[in-house]
Structure formats: C-alpha cells, structure tokens
Amino acid sequence: MVVSRNFVVIIGGPKSGKTVTARSIALQLEKEGWEVVPVVKPAQLDKYYDRERKQVFLLDDFVGTSTFDEELYNKVLKYRDLFSYSEKQNTKILFTCRKSVYFSAVPELQNLPSLQVIDLESFENRLDNDEKRKILHKHCDARSVTKENYESLSIENANIMFPFLCELFADNEKYQSIGERFFIKPFEGLCMEFDIMQDRNIVHYAALIMCMISNNCLSIGILLEEKTKVYIYNSVGLNQGTADRLLQDALEQMIGTYVIEIDDHFSFIHDSLFDILAYHYGRRVKYCPEIIRYLPSECLSNMVYIDSNQSVDEFSIPIPEDQFNCLAERLFVDIQNLKLYEVFMMKLLYYEPFFRAFIEMLNKESYDSLKEVFLSVQENATCEHPDHIDNELHNLLADLAFFVFEEEERYCIRVIAWVIYFCHFQLLEYIMDRVHDEEGSYQSVFGSEKREQTRLLVLCRYKKNVKITKLLLDHIDLNCINENLLTNNMLKIMPDAYRTLTPLTAACEVGNLAMVKLLVQSGLDINENERNTLFALSLALYYDHTEIVDFLSCNIRSQSTYVTIGQPIDEGFVQIITCKIEDRSSLTFTIEPRDRSSLSFTMEPRKLLRSYNTPIPVNGPFLSD
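== Novel STAND NTPase 3 domain-containing protein ==
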C-alpha cells in the first residue's frame, strides 16, 4: 500500500510495533533514494518540506497518545493541502496511531483526503510465524539467551504487543521461565508477575508503586512525602517502619528489569510497565477508594473511564459510580494545584452522571473558595506545559506577557480560561450562575478589563464551539471584539505574537467561519484598520480559508472604489494587490503547499490594477480601503 499510496496511517494496539513498522518502511524507501524526515509535531511537515526532493515524513501518535487530542488534530488539518499534494508528487507521509484513539477520531478524520489505513492487528497484516520467530531470535541472540528457552516456543497465537514482549522476554529470566504463556496472555502474565511480587516481595512492589505515584520520576535521595508513604504502605500491606534504604535497595535490584536510573531519579524501563502497574494498582480502587487520591494526574486523565460505551484499551481503569464523589474531590485538588490540562482534558467531565457528582462537590465549596480557584488571577504561578500543546496556545491560556523594564516573563493564570478553551459549557454556566447569585453581574467571570474579555474570546477560535462563543458574546463588552491583547508597556516579541490578534483575525487564521459570522452579527466593524491588527481577509487568503474569504468579501463596507490586499509570500515580504471593489469577490487564491515563495493570486488580467512585493510591517499583513 505504501508503494502505491503516499498518505498512510499505521494503527494498532499498545506496543504492537507501529513505530518500528513505520521506520522499517522508511528505511526501505531510503534505499530506493527517498529522504527520511522524522518529525515530532505537525508544523515540521511544513518546515522541512522540499518539493524538489523525494521525501518520506514520519510522525507518531498524530492525533493523540492515549486519547483523541482535538488540538493536535487541528494542527494536522492545517496541512491537508500537503496530504492531497503528496498523492501527486514525490512526498510520502507515514503516521502512527493507537487503534482506540483512531476509532474515536474517525468522524473527524474524514476531513483528511486520501487517508489510507494499515491495521497491524488485522488478519492480513499481523505478523506471520516466521516474522515472529525472526523478531524473537533477534532480541534473544542480542541478550545471549539460552536457545532452549525460546527456540521451541509455540507463538502462533501470540499477537498482542509481540515486538515489545520479545524485548521484555529477552531481558528477564522470570519471563523466560513462564515460556509461551507470557506471549499468549501478556497483560495477564505481567499482572500475575505483580501479584507474585506483591505477595513475596512486597518491598519491591511498594518501591515500584512509589515510582508510579511520582509520575515515573522518583528521586533517589527523597522518596515521597510521609503521608503518601503511609498510605502506600497501608494499601499494599507493608510495615510502617520499613526503612527508606530498603526501598532504595529494592529499586537498585530491579534496574534493567523494571526500572532505569537516570541522574538522581528512578524511572520505568518502558512506558508500558508504567501503564500496566498503574492498572494493576488502580484496579483495587473498588476496594480501596483512597487510591484515587494518589494516582498521578496523568494516569487519571489517560486511563480512567466510567462510561461503559467508551472506547478503551487494556490499560484502562474502571471507576465505579459509588467512587464519583471521591474522584470529583481529587479533581478539585488537581485544579487547585494547577494540573489544568490533565483535569480539563478528561472526557469524564462530559459524562452527565459524573458531572452531577462534580457539581454536588462544588456546591459544598464556599463561594469564596470557588471564586479563588476558578476566577482569581494567579500571578507568576506556573502550569505544566504538555508537549502536544502548541506554545502560542499555552501562552494564551496562561496569559504570558513580556513587559518593558522586566527581566522575566509574567504569567497571569485564571482557571476559567481552561474551562472555556476545553468547552465545558455546563461548568461555565454553573460558575456564571454562582457568581451572578452572589454579585448580581458576570464581571468576575469574564473580567472587568476589555483585554481579559478579548483574551477569553480569542480562545474560542480553537474548538469552533458555537455555544461557548455565543455565550461569551452575550455577556462581555462588545467593544472588545475590535481589540487585540497588546498594552503600551508590553514588548512586541515572538512569544507575545499572539497578542496582535483580534477575535476576528484569530478566527480567520484557524478557519473558524462560525465565529467570524457571530462576530459580524454582534456588530463587528470589519473595516477596522488599526496599525497593530493582523487583518482578517489577508489571513483568510493566506491560510486558504475560502469560505471566510467569500463571507468577508460580501460584508466589507468601503467608501473607496478600490480594495488593497496584503498577502504574505514568505517571512519577509508581502504581495500587495489592488483591485476594484466590485471585483474583489472574483479573487481566487492558488497555493502550492509547503513552498510559500510560490503563493500567487489568480484573476482575470483586466481586474488586476496593481501587484508588487513590499516588506511586511512589524505586525504582519494588512487590508486597507
């Protein structure tokens, strides 16, 4: 398929060999004269694309690691022209994706043209016996495993996580003693190993739990705070008087088998061991609900599920309904500790039975407490920035700014920004009702300054949620819809670049037509031409959002007979085109993806009055009458 098609996604379960398969294909193509270009984020597809070369791009987990990541998907979608273009040119794109993530994303992925899917676990694509034996022998020979331990194994029915299991098998004599059962029922086998460890080597098990609780980064010198250790000891049945030295010795004994030592920290030797141990420990939540309070926030975000209809994988931890209150309390603590991405990315907040439990918990909090957590400005606080969240988006959420005469950046975090960005509509309505009941207005929710209201409105551009956008427009000062986020004492540098956006230009940049229409319906003057504005039509043209171009062209009011459009053609220059007002709707925009020097306008010659290149102003492209 990869030979005949240029845009392919490889799917499979955890550790099924998706990345290895993609790299093997790429290496084979490299022998045939292709340039292999591994990338870690969608924007690098654009950065490294060269239409003069035969290139194959590799991108792992292209729409999320454990769950569907809409923000990451939107970034991929920005380059859909390249995907279509790749079918006609010397460009191949290989994506990998966990199967459960792919199936949850199927409705959205229909927007990607020419996408072909290879399922590694399908009957026609799964490894045959000869391939399995070659993989197993390669790992065992590299570790000098005794041949009698693996040559006669029956592995015909070994399909789950096979490449990864070969690596574990070759590294661990215990797994070799289990034999073929380790491959046939690996998840069960690894859980059984932890069962045995919990019974016979409880110090070792507790040490691994500590490594997991510390989110896979356990300090060698200082294990965990005392109350956490007390809870872990109680939950696994370890004597409270156990010395830290014994736990450190246990971890050192497991180096190379379960953990590795990096600098002054212990971490699991592989992410799958972290997942399996979290599942093994977390499945006890039914009998030991306090576990919910101690599982890492990332585990709760990626592994917990409560809806029986939810697509899950082997590592998921079910939470019974009678533990909803405990889980709701834990999430509130995480919000207080600014684990904001982990909490608000959780799908369980959209699940009605759990959401009711969450609201019941919030009802018990005083108004002052609620306001402090969700609405107060936390200056110079820090919120962890996940790798998959774009820098510009994170800076906008955390309200990062660089000020004149200040040496460092300043964060002004308000939790309500995450509520709005992740489209928790019911939670936003609840907070608004509590505030209005206490204060008689919504000012504390959206801020008293136009700049803050503008920031929250700009956040609406990403998810394209009409309900959230309309709710904000119904309750903010509509004068803010013509504003950007700059103030006179802010430095105009790249990390602050998003501050030049107005709500309209922000929506045009990402192609949010619904938001553009709502802004215009709310009274937005789309003829505003302030110096610090990245103007809307120019951006819509640049990103090829033709529906927005058509809408704006039909709604721009002008007192001139001409319109001038500034269109970026590279990092330093903008192409200026002037045409008659009545002809502007006839403008069509042609782009050869990934080569911005080839950007051009196509129109009838008689309609083109003037076209030339000029340096781009400090704050970007422009539109003027």
